[in-house]
Amino acid sequence: MKDFVNKLYRNHSLIYKALLFVSTTFLIVYLFPKSGKFKYNFEKGKPWQSENLLAPFDFAIKKTDDEINAEKQAITEEAVLYFIVDSIVKPRVKNNFENSFSEVFSDSIPAKKISHLQHVGNDILNELYLFGILNEDYNFSEKRTVAILKERTKIQDALFSNLVKQIQVSSVIDKVLNRNNLINYKADFTSLFFDLVEPNLNYDKSFTDKVIQEELDKISYTRGSVAKGTLIISKGEVVEGDKYQKLESLRSEYESQVWNESNYNWVLFAYALLVALAMLMLLLFLRKYRSEVYENNTKVTFIFFNILLLIFLTTFVVNYNSKYIYIVPICVLPLVLKAFFDARLGLFTHVLTVLLLGFIVPNSYEYMFLQIIAGIVTILTVSELYKRANLFISVGQITLIYIIAYFAFFVIHEGSVETLKWETFIWFVLCGLATLFVQPLIYAYEKLFGLVSDVSLLELSDTNSKLLKELSDKAPGTFHHSLNVANLAEASANEIGANAMLVRVGALYHDIGKMKNPTYFTENQSTGINPHDELSSKESAQIIIDHVINGIEIAKKNNLPDRVIDFIRTHHGTSVVYYFYQQEQQDYDDVDKTDFSYPGPKPFSKETAILMMCDSIEAASKSLKEPTSTKIDAFVESIIDRQIEEGQFLNANITFKEIQSIKKVLKNKLANIYHLRIEYPE
């Protein structure tokens, strides 16, 4: 059991990567669409580029949106309107008419005439209430069919024009009086009915809408079907009309197909294989070309997290509305990875992510082409992210590339620019503006993952920062030495293509541990008194060696990034404090060399190796007497060659060719410092 636990502990980093790999693959597959994907691309009005297409299974031909909308409009416009009749209104009005009739018409009128007038009054009421009087003026077509309901039961059918509006009551009275040659009594009848007539029809909107919805629900969204094995379209035929609708129906059938359990599992398995393959390629790339990133689980997690985040955002936008797909700032990924790592890793990860997004987005080839080109432009144009002007210029170039590439694709598909959707260019502009969010995003990532970007390095390189000002006050000689080393290291890094900003910051802070005992270091001894005279060689060596440990402690207290602390930790590697070691050998025969050796580790990157060389050269150059070009050349060669012999650069990925280039830079820099001219052979 103990051996098993020890084995787990030794391989915990690999186990973590395996879990990260599996979980990321699972989450990406979970975000992918769980349906079939139509494997053919086609455009309306363009020739069919693939081979003859036969129906792979029976499927229904879907109606176009225009056809469906036309049917819905016809149902809505021709639907029966339902009105509820108030059955007690008509009897009440008739009863009131009988009671009020005698009050309006005088007794002087002959009885026979009175009877006739009363009969005509009843005719008017029957005419008004034949279908009913509307309670308000409704804006419906006169030819609409209506149904009159009593207690939700239809009792009568009519046209809307048969229903009497309140403003039409007077005209109905006139019509009946004209028919009976009694127009002279218009004023009397109008006065009589003005207070008597009541509306008795109310429009039942809820019931009408319910009936309309029932009819809409009965609409068939298909017209006919295509049997399995039927030729849908031949190669070279133009995709239009019925053929286009059949192809759209087939594609819709593929994309909306509900898989049975067996098919569903196969689809998930296939997706998982492809995603796992892509993520495995990324891990293999890191292991082969970026081993320092591969060994750091935090950095691997950071890369996987960014891939997953972009896939999630893209999936969210596609599910909401795919026309906004180009608003998602995919180019943030290479920008972020370039800021924290390097351009090659950023581009490789960007391409893999875009390939995965091809499973999600519509018009996948067009999308992938645009995004890969934009990613390449991002990597090529953004050189120094900490310079704000550079970022704005690069975002403008990325946006321009998007617009040009999209325009080209559109012309290829449509053959003209007449139907170009100019609003799509707005999405590209918004995408460019969203890409500017990379600056606060980088800051957030630095806090969350403990990473360091060039933006933070620029802030740390400010010599007015609290820690460097403290170094300048307590150990001015060390501060001046650090500035000189920073200049030498930056020039050397630029010569071999290393991270010049990182090595400069590392050089500025590499000796901050000397602040604890500044007078024990020669560059800070201005009084001529050497406190080492009162100490043994071993004690003096320990104080010198401790400046590395003290520097690490000070750096951590001041929250310096680990990448900067690495320079403090490695700038002496495992070298020996030779001066005190030789003194000890003169006094004693048996001397333990480890008591005079720095604890290490040795430099493990180009940048930390550069700092070790420049630090040793700058410090030792103070002892040069009457320097000449020949002396300087021999001096640089001897110091760096001794470091090589001691194996100080075995863990650093630096080549002999790069070391020779650094030697050349250091020789030229020292010659300039001592105002020497290069000695040329006669």
UniProtKB/TrEMBL annotation:
Residue ranges of domain HD in the record: 478-620
Record key words, sorted: Membrane, Transmembrane, Transmembrane helix
Transmembrane residue ranges: 14-32, 266-286, 298-318, 324-340, 367-386, 391-412, 424-445
Top-rank lineage group of the source organism: Bacteria
Gene3D superfamilies documented for this protein: Hypothetical protein af1432 (1.10.3210.10)
Protein name as catalogued: HDIG domain-containing protein
Species per Swiss-Prot/TrEMBL record: Seonamhaeicola sediminis
